[in-house]
């Protein structure tokens, strides 16, 4: 009872105000989540090292097929290729042109055509060739060499353990990437790509013999009659110390490199 007597006369009004506030929607405050990861090492940036730089080679047949198709139309073309891998060298031996719907800036592989190609190779007893199809190539007629969003999606769709992808222009230029599958997929872009060719050893030998028959070596001589290889007296170099003083240069060059030379 004593407590009631000591209450301030303003208290009922405050209580009403508090009740009104309670009726308002209370803003939801997000409580901090307890950490699920505790960083133990955060120095520097994530790095990726390659023990050997990968390279892609186009066998002569593959090169002729790819640029033969790409340079024969202003529409975008695509094809699949068989890859032979030795260490970090990936050689595309040949390409297969499939049924495809093509536009000037895009092309779509026919899924059924891809399945048919694999089945056909297996039926012909070329199971090994079918297992080697790990290259996808397409052209960018009259465009820069880059990977579009669609290109990247195609790479992901065709990727198994690895996929070599090549985009070519009509100027016999190409850009290459290798996608590697697994738990941490990796893309290596701007992989060096070259044409593989075999030297004609018989022709080289014929050229060498032809040179032996028709080339007479000439010895270059100085005007004063000594051959470059002949011993000669050493030339004594003499400098005046004043000539080597850097402080003297500005005055020495005055007049030599002045306005009268008309620079520019
Ligand atoms: Zn593309």
Please render the helix and strand layout as text.
Blueprint: H1 2-6, H2 11-23, E1 55-58, H3 60-70, E2 78-86, E3 89-97, E4 100-102, E5 107-109, H4 111-123, H5 127-131, E6 133-139, H6 149-158, E7 162-168, E8 174-180, E9 186-189, E10 193-195, H7 201-214, H8 249-253
Parallel strand pairs: 1-3, 1-10, 6-7
Antiparallel strand pairs: 2-3, 2-6, 4-5, 7-8, 8-9
The structure holds zinc ion.
Spell out the key features of this protein.
eight-stranded mixed sheet, 21% strand, alpha/beta, flat, binds zinc ion, disordered C terminus, 264 residues, 10 strands, two-stranded antiparallel ribbon, Cytidine Deaminase, domain 2
Describe the structure.
This protein has 264 residues and is α/β, with parallel strands linked by helices. It has a domain at 55-195: Cytidine Deaminase, domain 2 (3-Layer(aba) Sandwich). The chain has 8 helices and 10 strands. It has an 8-stranded mixed sheet. The structure holds zinc ion. The site of zinc ion has 5 residues, from loops.
Shape type: flat
Strand order of the largest sheet: 9-8-7-6-2-3-1-10
| Head-to-tail CA distance between termini | 105 Å
β content, as a range? 15-25%
Bound molecules: zinc ion
What is CATH's topology name of the domain at 55-195? Answer: Cytidine Deaminase, domain 2
Helix content: 25-40%
Average pLDDT, all residues: 82
SSE succession: HHEHEEEEHHEHEEEEHH
The largest sheet is:
8 strands, mixed
Q: Could you say what the CATH architecture of the domain at 55-195 is?
A: 3-Layer(aba) Sandwich
CATH superfamily of the domain at 55-195: Cytidine Deaminase, domain 2
Number of helices: 8
């Amino acid at each position: 009872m004593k407590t009631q007597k000591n209450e301030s006369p303003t208290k009922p009004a405050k209580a009403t105000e508090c009740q009104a506030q309670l009726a308002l929607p209370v803003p939801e405050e997000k409580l901090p989540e307890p950490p699920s990861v505790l960083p133990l090492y955060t120095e520097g940036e994530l790095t990726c090292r390659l023990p050997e730089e990968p390279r892609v080679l186009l066998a002569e047949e593959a090169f002729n097929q790819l640029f033969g198709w790409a340079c024969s139309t202003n529409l975008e073309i695509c094809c699949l290729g068989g890859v032979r891998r030795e260490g970090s060298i990936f050689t595309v031996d040949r390409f297969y042109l499939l049924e495809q719907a093509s536009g000037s800036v895009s092309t779509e592989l026919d899924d059924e055509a891809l399945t048919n190609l694999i089945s056909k190779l297996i039926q012909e007893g070329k199971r090994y060739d079918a297992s080697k199809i790990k290259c996808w190539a397409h052209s960018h007629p009259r465009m820069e060499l880059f990977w579009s969003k669609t290109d990247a999606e195609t790479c992901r769709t065709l990727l198994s353990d690895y996929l070599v992808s090549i985009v070519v222009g009509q100027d016999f230029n190409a850009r290459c990437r290798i996608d590697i599958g697994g738990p941490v997929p990796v893309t290596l872009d701007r992989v060096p790509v070259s044409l593989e060719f075999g030297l004609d050893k018989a022709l080289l030998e014929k050229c060498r013999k032809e040179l032996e028959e028709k080339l007479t070596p000439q010895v270059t001589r100085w005007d004063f009659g000594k051959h470059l290889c002949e011993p000669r007296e050493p030339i004594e170099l003499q400098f005046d110390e004043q000539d080597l003083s850097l402080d003297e240069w500005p005055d020495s060059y005055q007049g030599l490199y002045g306005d009268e030379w008309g620079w520019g």
